[in-house]
Request: fold
Amino acid sequence: LDRPRVPVLQQWRGKALDHEASRQIMIGHLDHPAAQQECAQLLPWSWKIVVGANPAYDAFPMQHQIFYPSGKAGSTSLWYDPVFCVETLDEDRVWCKRHYRCTPRKHWSSPEALKGSTPGAWTLSTLDNGMVSEERWTTVDAADDLSWAVLHYSGAARRAGQSYVGALLCTPDGQWPETCRSGEGFERIRDAFQKCDLELWELFGGSTDKSYMWSDKFTSWAQMNPPPLDRIGDISITSWRKKEREKALEAKRS
Reply:
């Protein structure tokens, strides 16, 4: 999708955004040596989603984002393992997990003469139910202390002919950042979503006061059923899917 034309973050922590800083924003609060050590909380996840703009994709409760570097020497790519809760038709709840490869890409705002990728612009790809999905993610803004980040995405499932677009507010705890419920912080988040051609009232999942994504009915269930936050690691998406099918078959046999 070519619209909206979302600008990429230019400055972070007082410096022009470079590839290292771009990776640190995505890695967020994950307990990993590549995280921004001055402000990362060193958690089992990078971010939790507070609100999003696409009910079909952002409405799943308790979404954990886990971004981490590829273990291959010299690689600039990341892995992304989202973990989220799904409510089944029989009113049960289960955890679901995906595995994406994240590679730097060139952003539309970069000069034609500039070779290589643009910091803050990523291509995410995965195999989901036999269909290749490819998404373009853009870092729109992020607080210097990593208390929040706004990420935009647009994507398509090739064989299904489906396209989608959205944007996310991410924080370490899934709640609207305390210092941004009014004043300059609030206006900055609103401005970031407006760059995505979105108003705050269009977002799904909660408000500055509370997040539907992390309501008591979900978090109390999660206390008894912890999310599978282990990193899938340096394994291809196809190989991981094969392992998951084998595990499911083994579980049925037993």
